[in-house]
């Protein structure tokens, strides 16, 4: 396949790493995801990854009930760092060179986020995994993906989910639900479609940075998206 995009930002939810487990990291699942990323890297595409932390933080969510929002958000950021390290380890086993950069400074574990260094890593063919979201509470990792994608000069943000696109209704509950092939940002925002949160969508719209929502568990879907084929749902200006 010939890639349509030279540089992409892949948004991975923490929940994607769970597989069928109730929480945590499923090794087989993370190896499958890394295999999909490796195939795209071999196409010569530069890849940045923003990863969430829901698979770990949801495991302590009951204990976080009633907790101060900022404190809970910082706990979520730490969870994303754990996921980033697990992803990096799986990539190392797959022979993929990668670097983790964190928006929170934990220099004994991961290097801090430095835009110029991250861009250099991408140009060298390394996968850059961005952890700790934006480093600020009250912002989701979707917003972090929009932000890092804009900063890195990515041509598109690819949001990997368990569903193969954006639908008119929940396809698991409504068999008549239809998948959108293309949407504008304004349509996604006005219809309250669960693409990304409004802050992330607005930032992508303002930066004219398209978003493609697809299933990371559909074999070779990531390659087809990067090749510009009709896979998932494309949200554009």
CATH superfamily: Acetylglutamate kinase-like
Low-pLDDT ranges:
none
Largest sheet: 9 strands, mixed
Strand order of the largest sheet: 4-3-5-2-1-6-8-9-7
What is the first-to-last residue Cα distance? Answer: 26 Å
- CATH architecture name: 3-Layer(aba) Sandwich
- What number of domains? 1
- Percent helix: 25-40%
Residue fraction in strands: 15-25%
Protein structure class: alpha/beta
Along the chain, the helix and strand elements come as EHEHHHEEHEHEEHHEHE
Provide mean pLDDT, rounded.
93
Within the CATH hierarchy, at the fold level, what is the topology?
Carbamate kinase
Number of helices: 9
The 3D shape can be described as globular
SSE topology sketch:
Layout: E1 7-12, H1 27-41, E2 46-51, H2 54-57, H3 61-64, H4 69-93, E3 98-102, E4 111-112, H5 115-123, E5 127-131, H6 141-152, E6 156-161, E7 182-184, H7 185-190, H8 198-206, E8 211-215, H9 221-226, E9 233-236
Parallel strand pairs: 1-2, 1-6, 2-5, 3-4, 3-5, 6-8, 7-9
Antiparallel strand pairs: 8-9
